[in-house]
Amino acid sequence: MYLLFLSLGGITLYTINGGKKSENKFKVAAAIFHGVGLLLLLVAGFGLMKFRGISHSALPVWVILKIVIWLAFGGLLAMASKKEKFAKILWFVFPLLGLAAAYLAFYQPF
How far apart are CA 16 and CA 107, in angstroms? Predict the structure, then answer.
């Protein structure tokens, strides 16, 4: 999770401060951290499902919502690196998505 938020925060802050994607020297490292973070979260999530005995054939709603949030984290890196306007909005959206994912995992409301 740290790798994911490190890369998202770094790219978002770089874009907010006027940096261009083509001028970013660390865009490859940020993309690698982002991808590795997403992969680790996916593997850990499915491992936790197996540990808790949740069937893969009939996923609960909270698991589906967590997968949607995971996909959003995967796609929003590109949006954060494009325009300053999007990056300013995503600066606040990323922590909210993280809180929503944590809430769904901890309380399993659905």
Answer: 34
Q: Which pair of structure tokens corresponds to residue 33?
A: 């951290």
- What DSSP character marks residue 104? H
Residue type, 21: K
Q: Is the pLDDT of residue 98 over 90?
A: yes
- Taking Cα atoms as reference points, which of 88, 98, 96 lies closest to residue 2? 98
Largest CA distance in the chain: 47
- DSSP alpha helices (H): ranges in 1-110? 2-16, 27-52, 61-82, 84-107
Mean pLDDT for the chain overall: 92
Q: What does the alpha-carbon distance between residue 41 and residue 29 come to, in Å, rounded to a whole number? A: 18
Residue 34: partners with Cβ closer than 8 Å, 6 or more residues away: 3, 4, 7, 8, 11, 77
